[in-house]
Amino acid sequence: MSEIKYTWQDDSPFLDKRLQSYSKSGCYPFHMPGHKRAPIEFPNPYSIDITEIDRFDNLYHSSGILKEAQQRAAELFGAKETFFLVNGSTAGILSAISAAVPRLSTLLMARNSHKSAYHAVHLRGLETVYLLPASTEFGISGSISPAHVAQALSDLPQISAVYITSPTYDGVTSDIRTIAEIVHAYNLPLIVDEAHGAHFSLSEEFPESALDCGADLVIQSLHKTLPCLTQTALLHINSDRIDRDSLENFLSIYQTSSPSYLLMASIEQCVRFLTEEREEQLAKYMPQLKNFYRQAKSLKHLRIFEKNSCNPDTCFDHDISKILISVGSSDLTGQKLYRKLLHNYYIQLEMCSGHYVTALSSLMDTQEGFTRLLHGLKEIDDEISLSSRHSSPEPVIFGSRTTRQPNRLTSNDIYQPPKPQMPIAMAMEQPAEPLSLKASTGHISQEFLYLYPPGIPLIAPGEILTGKIIGIVDQCKKLGLTVEGLSDGSGRNIKVVKL
C-alpha cells in the first residue's frame, strides 16, 4: 500500500482555518456527516443564504415551493406527510413527543433513547416507564422485545404513547412491525427515532424502515447517513393518530424562527440526488462494503460484528453500514484502537467505547476508505499476534455483566437498570446541593450523566445514584471516554436533590 500523505495541522485558533486544514488532509472520514466531504452539486452557500422573502415560501406555513419540496420527500421515503427539520432530529423528537403525549401523562420509552427524548419528558412533565434493551454477546445494547412492550401496555393503562429508538447508535433495530401492531391494538401512537436509519429505504440490504413497518411518527437525520449538510433531518407522519396541527405548532416552537434556506436547499438536493442517482451510488458502495466484511473475516484477534452471529432474540436486525470493531481478546481498549487508527493510519472513526470502535459508512464512501481501514486493521491484528507470543491476555466474555479484564467496559456493563425515585421534571425543579460524585451514593440525581457520543443517560434526574453507577463513571473516565451532563466543568461534582 502506498504511503499516506497526512498534513493536518490542528493548532490554529480559528475554526475556519482548522476546518480547511482537516478537509485538505489525508484523514479519511468514517464518521458523520454522510456526504463524507464529497460534495454533490450545490451553489456557493453565501449566494443563496436568504430569509423569508417574496416567492420563497415560509417553512412553518408552507404553501408553495417548500410545501412541494416536502411532498417530494414524503414520496421518496413513503410517508403520508413530511416536515423539513433544520434543528436536527432533536427538534423532531421534541415535537413528536410533545404532540403525542399530553402534559403530565405517561410515556413508555426505550431506556437507550437519546437525551433529546429525556428533554421532552422534562418539558412536558411526563412520567416515564422504561423498556430495557436486550444484552448481546458482542457487548452492545440489543433490541427492544415486543413481549416487554405488550406486558407494559397490559399492566399500565395510563400509558399514552410508546417511543423507541431503532436503529440504535450501533445499528441494532427492533421488530417495529410487531411492536406497532401491539401498540395500535391499544389505539396508541408509536414514535420511532430512526435518526440513524434515513438510508434504510434505499436498499433491501438494509433493515426495514419504521415507516414501512407501521410507526406513526418517524424521525430521520439525513446528515448522519446521507449526502446532506449537518443539522438536516425529517419528521414523517404515517397515520392520523397524532394531531397534525399540534405537531406543526410544536415544530415552530422547537425550531428556529429563522430557518436556514441553505439547510432546506441541502435537504431538497439530497432528495433529488437519491431519486436520480441512488442506484448508481449503491452499485458502487454495496459491493465495496460487502467485500470489506468478507476480507475482515481473516482477522485473528479483532472482531467485526455481524448480525448472523447474534441471537435474533437479542438483535432483531443490524445495519451493515455501521461497522463495529471489537478489540477481541487483545490487550487493547476501544480508545487505544481508535487512536491507533487515527494517528498511524489517518482514519477518523465515529466513536469509541470500552471494548469497540465504530466506523460509519455511507453510500458516499470510496474504495480507498475501505482499503485503508482494512489495511490498518490487519496490521494492528498482526501486531497483536506478535505481542501475544510473549503474553496471554485473559479472554473477555462479552455477554457477561462483569467483564473479566479491568480495562474493559462493554455496553452491558455501562448501562445499568435505573432506580427512579421521582419524575425527571420534579427532580429538576427541586432545591439542589452539589456533592462530590464519590459522596453522592444513595442520593437522588438532579442532573444527567451520559457518554457522548451517543448521548444515552447512565443516570437521569430523579434516579438514585448507586455505588455501581459511580464506579462505572470512574472507569469510563479512566478509559478516556467522554462523560458529559454535569454542570460542574471539572466533572467531579454532581447536583443532587436536597431533601
Account of the 3D structure:
The termini are far apart. Helix 5 runs parallel beside helix 6. The longest helix is centred in the middle third of the chain and has 36 residues. The protein is an alpha/beta fold. About 35% of the residues lie in helices and about 15% in strands. The strands form six sheets. Strands 2-9-8-7-5-3-4 form a seven-stranded mixed β-sheet, sandwiched between helices. The radius of gyration is 23 Å and the shape is globular. Helix 4 links the parallel strand 3 and strand 4.
Name a few traits of the molecule.
499 residues; alpha/beta; seven-stranded mixed β-sheet; four-stranded antiparallel β-sheet; 14 helices
Structural class: alpha/beta
Mean pLDDT, all residues: 92
Q: What's the helical proportion of residues?
A: 25-40%
Main sheet attributes: strand count, strand direction, barrel closure: 7 strands, mixed
Low-confidence stretches: 392-404
Cα-to-Cα separation, first versus last residue = 64 Å
Radius of gyration: 23 Å
Order of strands, main sheet, comes to 2-9-8-7-5-3-4
Number of helices: 14
Q: Strand percentage, roughly?
A: 15-25%
Beta-strand segment tally? 20
Overall, the morphology is globular
